[in-house]
Amino acid sequence: MGSMQVKTDWIPDAEVRDVYSRQCPCRDLLDMLADKWTALTIGALEDGPRRFGQLRVKLEGISQKMLTQTLRTLERDGLVTRTVYPTVPLRVDYELTELGRSAAEPLAAVRAWSTGNLPQVVTARRAFDQRAADVPQPSS
Known about the structure:
Layout (H helix, E strand, L loop, with lengths): L25 H9 L1 H9 L5 E2 H7 L5 H13 L3 E6 L5 E6 L1 H37 L6
Antiparallel strand pairs: 1-3, 2-3
């Protein structure tokens, strides 16, 4: 996800909303939603609020920096709320907003498709790699 920023200097009604158009601001949103850590973070929050540490445990392999960036992007885009409780130690919960819950359903379908079709994809990759390895290389 890195330094991805969704454009904020456009007027929705005046813009083209064709995702196939290079100028469409929806492309930035699609890029954000298609990010692996975004899809997994939204999935991890589907069952209710979680603390940062709980998310790190659930999202095996995510770095602290990447989780922080992902949560900030989701909060900025209105998909996640961050609630700070004035306790000692400080408690911070992250929770999907209504908008975030609306994104959760299609992302859950993508995650389910990924797990359900992994064997076929692995088989296709192996076959492709084998065909590529069998192609004679031109001699110089």
